[in-house]
Amino acid sequence: MSVRIITDSACDLPKNIIDEYNIHVVPILIYLEDKEYLDGETLNPMDLYKGMRSGKVYKTAQIPPATFKKVFLEYAKKNESVIYIAFSSGLSGTYQSALMAKNEVLDEYPDLDLEIIDTKCASVGFGLVVYKAVQMAKEGKTKEEIVNAVKFYSQHMEHIFTVDDLEYLYRGGRVSRTAAFIGSLLNIKPILDVEDGKLIPIEKVRGRKKVLKRMIEIMEERGVDLSNQVIGINHGDDLEGAKKLEEMIRERFGCKKFVVNIIGCAIGAHSGPGTLSVFFLNQKPPM
């Protein structure tokens, strides 16, 4: 590849895509009490969800500048052209850490060819942006072409998801204790979105079956040319739910290409088991 793509573990891309395109994924930090883990390396999602179901509370922390500095130095020394595609700055300080590290590396390597892009996206919505970038890099597209595509996909990526238990959003400070209690009591399932990089609740639906139906309706309202898109789906250890959602999308819109994966530890620590998400573009990419 003429352009090297770096990202972080909040992209939640499946391992086969990471391996196929040799994507450099920097892990976000996960904490259980005082013990530190690396997302996807020393802690896997299945163990995280098992722990959460048993009452364990996991915390997350941004990637420190020192980690990014080490990564960026590696490519600076080889004089490679690099794009770091980052997790939303509205949900993590990781993007800011990367900027700090870049400035430090520039002091030593003023010719550093590094572009850092804040996607304002999360999970597989973020992952689809990365996926497009690595496909273009493999095709030999220029850095400018890839950067322009990353910005377009980032700006037009829809994130529609629901959580199975509001308790986990309460722990992360996303909803009040009263809302979590009443929601659980009444079997209310919130539908959330990511807008300008931040988590926004958009609707409340009662019952799992109705919430999936409503997610499909929102896809129809917001999506454009869905049958020709790569659709992202991910889940918090609910593969059956993800398959059901995929089947509904195939039947409704005729979609053929999907990226389906379990939600990684960085996102899953806040959303919890049973989360279901769908990601798609709300505008047709330019030719």
Question: What is the strand and helix layout of this fold?
Answer:
Elements (H helix, E strand, L loop, with lengths): L2 E6 L6 H6 L3 E3 L2 E4 L2 E4 L6 H9 L4 E4 L3 H13 L3 E6 L7 H15 L5 E5 L4 H16 L4 H13 L1 E6 L3 H6 L5 H9 L2 E8 L2 E9 L1 H15 L7 E6 L3 H15 L3 E6 L2 H7 L4 E6 L6
Helix pairs in contact: 3-4, 5-6, 9-10
Overview of the structural elements:
Mean pLDDT is 91; it is low at 176-183. 43% of the residues lie in helices and 25% in strands. The protein contains 11 helices and 13 strands. The chain has helices at 15-20, 45-53, 65-77, 94-108, 123-138, 143-155, 166-171, 177-185, 208-222, 239-253, 265-271, and strands spanning 3-8, 24-26, 29-32, 35-38, 58-61, 81-86, 114-118, 157-162, 188-195, 198-206, 230-235, 257-262, 276-281. The protein is an alpha/beta fold. A hairpin with a 2-residue loop joins β3 (29-32) and β4. 44% of the residues are buried. It has 2 domains: 3-155, Rossmann fold (3-Layer(aba) Sandwich); 157-281, Hypothetical Protein Tm841, Chain: A,domain 3 (2-Layer Sandwich), CATH 3.30.1180.10. It has a 6-stranded mixed beta sheet, sandwiched between helices. A 4-stranded parallel beta sheet has the order 2-1-6-7, sandwiched between helices. The chain crosses the membrane at residues 258-281. One of its GO terms (molecular function) is lipid binding. Keywords: Lipid-binding, Membrane, Transmembrane, Transmembrane helix. May bind long-chain fatty acids, such as palmitate, and may play a role in lipid transport or fatty acid metabolism.
